[in-house]
Amino acid sequence: MKLTFPPVITLGCLIIQVLLFNLLPLTVDLSLLFGFLLLVGSIGCIALAARELFKNETTIIPDGQPEKLVTTGPFSFSRNPIYLGMAGILISSACFMQSLSALVIPVIFLLIIHKTWIPHEEVKLKEKFGKDWEKYAASTSRWLG
After folding, report:
1. d(C-alpha 127, C-alpha 23), whole Å
2. InterPro entries of this UniProt entry (predicted)?
3. What CATH number should be reported for the domain holding residue 35?
4. Residue 19: inside a domain, yes or no?
5. Domain-embedded: residue 133
6. Which residue, 62, 75, 94, 113, could crosslink 102 as a Cys pair with Cβ 3.0–4.6 Å?
7. 128 half-sphere exposure, CB direction, 13 A CA radius
8. What's the first-to-final CA gap in the chain, in angstroms?
């Protein structure tokens, strides 16, 4: 069942938001709330990825020797969930500071990791796991996908 045209629904919702804000102004700094939610999610992503590595009895150390190719848990949607979580922590920190300039740091972090550590790790994984690695890399995004 269609209520009405989507732009009209949007306008109606916007009017209700303004009314609610004026009648019951429950204010919160959204950048702090977003920063907190991102921080919790990022730490959770790192913890789940670490648990998956430990469960599969392989290294969590970036320069370590992998024993198994882990493709489950957070590794099923990102080949680098720990680095993704680290970037999330840096973005949440910028939100807590409420600083646009601090958002440069997560970008620099991602560039450094993307250009140095990830290629280094992927070479090791390809050498050790061959076709299994190639299949995983073809089906799972390096960051999010």
Report:
1. 63
2. Phopholipid_MeTrfase (IPR007318)
3. 1.20.120.1630
4. no
5. yes
6. 94
7. 14
8. 32
Both tokens of 18, joined, read 């303004």
Between the alpha carbon of residue 96 and those of residues 40, 44, 88, 89, 132, the distances in Å are 13, 18, 12, 10, 41
Provide the residue-wise pLDDT of the chain in tens; the chain has 145 residues.
Answer: 566 788 888 999 999 999 999 999 888 888 999 999 999 999 999 999 999 999 999 999 988 899 999 999 999 999 999 999 999 999 999 999 999 999 999 999 999 999 999 999 999 999 999 999 999 999 999 998 7
Count of residues making up the chain: 145
Q: For residue 83, what are its two tokens?
A: 């680095």
Tell me whether residue 31 is in a domain: yes
> What pTM does this model have?
0.84
Q: How far is CA 129 from CA 21, 56, 58, 66, 122, in A?
A: 56, 15, 13, 9, 10
Other C-beta atoms within 10 Å of 69: how many? 16
Which helix (H) or strand (E) segment holds residue 92: the answer is helix 81-97
Number of structural domains found in the chain: 1
Distance CA 86, CA 107 (A): 12
